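seq as requested:
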Amino acid sequence: MADTDVVVTDGYTGNMVLKNLEGTAKSIGKMLKDTIMSSTKNKLAGAILKKDLAEFAKKMDYSEYGGSVLLGLEGTVVKAHGSSNAKAFYSAIRQAKIAGEQNIVQTMKETVGESNE
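struct tokens:
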């Protein structure tokens, strides 16, 4: 599987894909937790992996990222999750600040161009 940095889609499809991925990630997390808690052997393994699992969970935590960056023709929007907490809003604002400072929309215009191909 290749790494993906950017996905281009319409709003409806993008939202459906995000919701599907969120649900899948939540289900996998619950199954992993249930498996770890299912036996003494698994609990011991979980204790050994606790730090690594915490780091993995942090990478999967939407509040670390704040929201999805939507690039428009004239500006940038960061769409936060409906159940965002203070940390998630902070992260979303940080993303918007970075996007503004780096002139992402202008860079996209210059890179992609204004052609009708």
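The chain has two domains: 8-60, 65-117.
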